[in-house]
Here is the input.
Amino acid sequence: MSNQADNTDKTSTSSTANSTTESKSLLDKIEPDSASAKENNFEDYAKKNPLYAYLSPAYVQNESGQYFPGASARVGTALVKDTAVINAMLRKVVSVFPRNMKLAWSVKPRVAGEGVEYLELVALKGSRDNRAALGGEVIVDARQDFDQNGRCEVTIQMNSEGAKSWKRLTGENIGRQVAIVLDNYVYSFPVVNDEIPNGRSSISGGEMSIEEGQDLANILKAGKLPAPSRIVEEAVVGPTLGQEAIDAGLWSFVVAFMLTLAYMIFYYNRAGLIANVALFVNLLFVFGILASLGAVLTLPGIAGIVLTLGMDVDKNVIIYERIREELRAGKGMRLAIDDGYKHAYSAIIDSNITTLLTGIVLYIFGSGPVQGFATTLIIGVLSSLFCAIFITRLLFTYMLDNNKKISLSTRFTEHILTHVNINFIGIRKTYYVISGVLILIGIVSLGVRGLSYGIDFKGGRTYVVRFDHDVRIDKIRQALLPMYGQEPEVKTFGGNNQVKITTSYLIDDQATKVDSIVESKLYEGVKGLYNEKITEAEFLAHAGGKSLGKMSSQKIQPVIAYSLLVKAYYAVFISLLIIFGYIVIRFRKWQWGLGAVVSLFHDTFIVVTLFSLLHGILPFSLDIDQHFIAAILTIIGYSIMDSVIIFDRIREYTVLHPKQNLQETMNAAINSTLGRTLNTSGITFMVLLAMFLFGGEVIRGFTFALLVGVAVGTYSSILNATPIAYDTIMWQLRRNEKKSPVKVVKK
Here is the structure.
C-alpha cells in the first residue's frame, strides 16, 4: 500500500510501504473470491460484489493456492470505461480509509489482449498534513537515459533543499515505493533500492519504453508549474485507416509524378528529359532532408511533396519558355540558354521567395499536420530552386560541350501561344464586373448558408466509424440522439459505409472517464446498425482484421479551437502583409503591391464562397479547418507567383521600351508570358487533380480548395492584379497632373 499524494497541481513524490498494519486491516476485509467467481449472471454477481464486479484486486496466489494482498502500492486494475463506476463507489466509503491515504489512477492505460485498455489503481500515503512528502519544485532537471544494461531509465537532479529531503525520504523507505503524481494521476511508483544522498536519482524499469521515459522526464521537469495539465487536443488514427490514407497518398504521388514526367517530355522534348532528371534529384533531396530532420511524414506532408513536383516543374517552365523566346529572336542555342537563364532568374527568385514566406507563416501559425505540410513545402521550394537552376544548367552545358542535340519543343507544341495579342487591359472592366458578381454571391452565401466549421474551430469530438454495409446518415443521427441528448453532426466520409460523427457532448468535462463514456455511448447508439453483431471491444479496436468500428478519433477543447481560429486569421493577414511589403520593395511602387494583394483577397474569397455554396452538396467534406487554412495560404503563395512573373516582365519591358505607353507595355508583357503562366498553372492543376482523385478522403477537401485556388489564381493574375495596378498608377498620374498643372510663362 502506498502513501498519500499531493493534492495540488504539482508533480510530487510520495513514499509507499510494502505492508503496514493499516493496509493489512483494510485488505483483509476483502475476500479474494473474484478470481474464482463462477456466477454466469453479471448483474447477480455485481449485487453481491459491487466493487469486484469492476475492479480486479492486486492479489497473488501462493504455492498452496491461497490468495493474499500483493506487496505493492497497486490496489487493483480496471477497464478504463469502468473507472467512473469505481470512483463513485469509493466516494461513498471514503470515511473508512485512513485520513492520510488516497487512491489515484495511473495516467497511462495498459493494453491487455484484444486491445482492451485498463488502468491501475494505486494507494498513496501522504505526510501528517496530508501533503506530498516532496514537491516537484525541487527538481532542477530530468531526462531520459539508459542504464548499464541498456534499459531505458529517467535520471532526476534536485536542488540542495530537495536533495536533503530526498536523502531522508529514501533512507526511511528502502524497499518501499515512491509515487510520482501530477494532477492526481500516478505517472510512476518505483521501488527505492538505496538511500540517495546527492539528489541525483534514476527511475528504471524493464518494461519502460523510450517514449514513456521521455514523457516521464518531461512531466518531472514541468513539475514546478503551478497550473494543472490538461489535454486540449488529441487525435487517434487506427492502423487500418492510417494505412489506407498512406496508400492513397502514395498513389496520388505516383500518379502525379508519372503525369508530370510524361507532360514535360511531350511539351519540351529532350529538354523535358533534363527537367525530369532534376525532378528526380529534387525528390532525393527532399526525402533525404526530411529523414535527416527526423520528420514524420504525414498525409498533408505527402501532399506538400506532391505539390513540390508542380512547383519544381514551374521553375523549369519559366526557364524553358524564356530560352524559347531567345531562340525565336534568332539567337544560337548556347547564347539562348545563357540569356534564358539570366533573364529568368529574377522571376524565379521573386516568385519563390513569396511562396517561401507563405510557407514560413504556415509553419509558425500552424500546428500538427499543417506544420508537416509547411515543412515539406519549405524544403521543396529551396531544393527545387537549386535543382532547377543548377542541375538543369549543368546538364545543358554537358550536352552543348559534347555536341548533343537539344530541343525544347515538339511539332505539336512549337508555336503554342507564340502569336497571341489580346488587349487584356482594354477588357479589364468586364472582368471587374465578373469578379464583383462572384464576390457578391459569396457575401450572400456566407450570410444565408454560412460555413461548415470543422472540429478544429468549434471544439468537440470526431469519430470516423465504418459499418459492414452502406448506411443512411439520418438513421445514425436518430440512433445517437438519445445517447447524447442532441443530434450529432454526421457526414459520409469516403464510401457510403463510412461516416464522420462530430459531437460536443461533455466536451467541457475534464474528467478522465469522459472519453470512455462518450465512446461507450457511441457504441450503444450505432451497434444496432450493423448486420453482424459487434462487441464494444471489437468496435473500439477496429474489429480486428475486419476493419470495422471506430477507425479514428479526434478531440479538441473549445479553448484550443478558439486559439486556432485566431491564429488562422493572423496567418492569412500576416501573409498578405508580408507579400504586400515584398512586392512594394521589389517593384518600388505601392500600386503593384495593392494589385497583388487585392488579387489574392479575390482568390481566397472565391474559394471560401465555393466552400459556403457547396458544403453538404458535394460528396466530400468541405469543413473549414486547419487543412483549409493551409490550402488558403498555399493558394496565396502560388497565386502571387503567377502575378510576380507578369510584373517582372512588365518591369523589363518598361526598361526596354521607355517611350511606350503603359497599356501597351502591360498587354505585351501579359501576352508574352501567357504560355508560361498557363503552362505552370496547367501542370500544377494536373498534379493537384491526381491528388484529388487518388489522394484519399482525408485530403479531398484540401486538394479541392487548391484546385479552385490555382484556377482562380491564374484568372486573377492576368485579369485582376495587373489591371488594378494599371488603374491605380493612372489614377496617381492624373492626380499629380491636377496638383502640378503646367504653367505658361509669358515674357
Observations:
- Residues 460-556 form a domain with the Alpha-Beta Plaits fold (CATH 3.30.70).
- The CA atoms of residues 32 and 64 lie 15 Å apart.
- The radius of gyration is 33 Å.
- The longest helix spans residues 239-293.
